[in-house]
Amino acid sequence: MGKANKQVVCDVLMELAKTDRDITVLCSDSRGSGSMTDFANTYPDQFVEVGIAEQSLVSIAAGMANAGKKPVACSPASFLSTRSMEQIKVDCAYSHTNVMLLGISGGVSYGALGMTHHSSTDIADIASIPGMRVYFPSDRLQTEALTRAIMADRDPAYVRVGRNAVEDVYEEGNVPFEMDKATVIREGKDLAIIATGEMVLAAKQAGEQLAQQGIEATVIDMYCIKPLDREAVLRAAKTGLVITVEEHVAIGGMGSMVAQVIAANEPCRVINLTLPDAPVITGTSREVFQYYGLDADGIVRTAREWLK
């Protein structure tokens, strides 16, 4: 049963907040779009509305962390990752504060609102900061496991989730989650597909389609973009062809990080399926993915082309 990953984060925080008064959610006029209204209504003393002031959002969250709180700063990914970059660098990473930065409506979730609201550079923005971790969970089940893990540790992290409900990648009660370790969804010898975030479902579907055509693909869910699971990348490289899939531009994205690891250790062909280095077309997420070959059919076409 599909569910929006942002709603899952709220559900987990509401459960944990029953017994942990230090858990606090901060929003930049985004409680509705971030699915945090229930938290704000249930725990008003553990909720802070900052307004449209993303830099203040991050700095206040860092200050609360220094006071012993466990803050979650929620804002649209497009604004959180750009307007607040200095505060993320200094107040969260350099100062090593226990802040979970939740970038909502990531990638092209806002559809027709266009480039101003698309977050297609947030991996490059945030992963480039020393001390920041970056996670793109794929479905509701992995999002739940990841949220629990981050709230249990003391390191800053950026988590990007989409806007809409997504189909399940994993099965209820069978989520092979290990912190900072990629999940191998299927094994294959002909090529490897490494995907992150909501692209993982398309990669899984592509692997199934390729299997029906006699092509066995390894499919990897790289939810942990930083720290990148280097061991999983190098195992994928042994197939001789790696295709990366992400809702992000090529420059500074997950695919470029994968290519760096492979080039230095296990050279093979690496093809990056990404958003373009230009404003994307106007349309829904599904239409955008289809246009740029980021859906299952597009991944299959790319795999067959490079296997010729």
Describe the structure in your own words:
- This protein has helices at residues 5-17, 37-42, 54-66, 77-83, 85-94, 122-127, 140-152, 199-212, 230-237, 254-265, 285-291, 296-307, and strands at residues 3-4, 23-27, 47-49, 70-76, 100-104, 133-135, 157-160, 165-166, 183-186, 191-195, 217-221, 224-226, 241-249, 269-275.
- The two termini are 37 Å apart.
- Helix 1 (5-17) crosses helix 7 (140-152), helix 3 (54-66) packs parallel to helix 5 and helix 9 crosses helix 10.
- It folds into two domains: 3-166, Thiamin diphosphate (ThDP)-binding fold, Pyr/PP domains (Rossmann fold, 3-Layer(aba) Sandwich); 183-307, Rossmann fold, CATH 3.40.50.
- Helices cover 39% and strands 21% of the residues.
- It is built from twelve helices and 14 strands.
- A seven-stranded mixed beta sheet has the order 3-2-4-5-7-6-12, with helices on both faces.
- By secondary structure, the protein is an alpha/beta fold.
- The radius of gyration is 19 Å and the shape is globular.
Pairing-aware structural class of the strands and helices?
alpha/beta
What oligomeric state best describes the polypeptide chains here? Answer: single chain
CATH domain fold name of the largest domain: Rossmann fold
CATH architecture of the largest domain: 3-Layer(aba) Sandwich
Fraction of residues in helix: 25-40%
Poorly predicted regions: none
What's the number of extended β-strand segments? 14
N- to C-terminal distance: 37 Å
Count of helical regions:
12
> Biggest sheet, open or closed, and with what strands and sense?
7 strands, mixed
Percent in strands: 15-25%
Shape designation: globular
